[in-house]
Amino acid sequence: MKVRIFDTTLRDGEQTIGVSLSPDQKLSIAKKLDALGVDAIEAGFPVISEGELKAVKMITAEGLSCEVAGLTRTIKNDIDAAVEAGLNYIHTFIATSDIHLEYKLKMTRDQALEKAIEAVEYGKSRGLQVEFSAEDATRTDREFLKKVFGEVAKAGADRVNIPDTVGYSTPEYMADLTRDTVEATKLPVSVHCHNDFGLAVANALSGIHAGASCAHVTINGIGERAGNASLEEFSMALQCLPYEKKYETNIKSELIYETSRYVSKIVGIKVQPNKAIVGDNAFGHESGIHTHGVLNNPLTYEPISPELVGRKRRLRVGKHAGIHGMNAMLEEFGVKTTEEQSQQILDKIKILGDQGKQITDVELLSIASDVLGEKGIKRIVQLTGFSVSTGIGTMPYAFVKLNIDGKEFVGTDHGVGPVDAALNAIQTITGRISELRIKDYGLASISGGSSALCEVTISVEDAQGNRVSSKSIGEDIVTTSVQAVIDGINRIMLKKMLKEKQVN
Ligand code: MN
After folding, report:
1. What CA–CA distance (Å, rounded) separates 208 from 8?
2. Residue-wise pLDDT tens digits, 160-203
3. 12 Cα to the center of ligand 1, angstroms
4. Domain extents for the chain?
5. Based on C-alpha coordinates, what's the Rg of the chain?
């Protein structure tokens, strides 16, 4: 059975605190979602602002292959704005729970029902596909909810949606409401689940089992408060879990990770590392027992192959590491060790791990080269000149000279501040050479006062998505930042060089 994916990243997702997207950004996300294979997107709430209207217009004009919906209240003016935005599909809603009726709408149940019917009839009279939502459905009197859905179906609604607006439902209750709604409407039913108790995806799956044919979801689960059911978790659970075998979606799962990263970057919300499917650690292994198992057969400790969602497995070493995993990582870089050398390297890793240190693959290589009696990490990139100017009434500007493998490169750039200008200038060079990008930048002050030491942590990523992080401590924020970036670039280039050596 095909389950319809209705993505509301651009509407509910945009209602995440701190998120506000420009029309161009919304259009770029809409295109990504379309490429991912969602069946419908909720592009926005056209009546709320000029920019929102413009964004929805741009999206409807784009000719995407998915359906495009817009949110409206049960108000004529909202529906007119949707038509003006070029929409032929609206998602119209009114609250039906007593708490919303009394404190928000100041309406009786009958008045709300009347508004719902009017809006559906008006939407149909304007030639629109109409999906009706009874907001706060899961806290609505069950009999009244059935009545509302039955009446809007009679009024001509094409679809109805059960919103668990405050994430208050359990899977059992979602199933009950879904069965009620299917029976009362005989229409396609959607479920819209929020994650206030971490149950959004479980509730959405339960709705599907009970007869719903569509779920409203968002990329990375962003949305109001604790967010919505996440597209990646919901669609992969449907596709992969044994109980769900009879369901499928149109999602091109191999694009999931890329889409997640793209949305995260544009909306400016990081994905937590332990987030299912798309978190940094979702396919990472450190413990010796797990790594050993995965190396023999990935299915021992991975429910699905990372490639299925466009990812790669990530092995790390640390205090839980075992010799097999560590050797596998070293071999990846073409480093062969004797049994005794391996043991020595592992002992050093465990000592660092016990001190609470994270061991990146570059640190592993560095420890290995100590043990193998080779020189430390070769510095491929050297900073040979640097200056920065800043002030008031002038734009911060930086000049950087780098020696990369014997060749001199010069870069200059502006920035919002001196650190930004310096990092931009470096990137004008490294971006040209190997498409290196600075992904994260963190600054902390170690001691108090204006002469405090600062600690800069950065991570650098190459075009293949390989990432390394580095840290530098110093007195001058700008030069410490530059040092950290140069270290990171050296590390990632070393990694690349060793990889290339191994290939040749
Ligand atoms: Mn919502």
Report:
1. 18
2. 999 999 999 999 999 999 999 999 999 999 999 999 999 999 99
3. 5
4. 4-267, 284-372, 381-503
5. 27
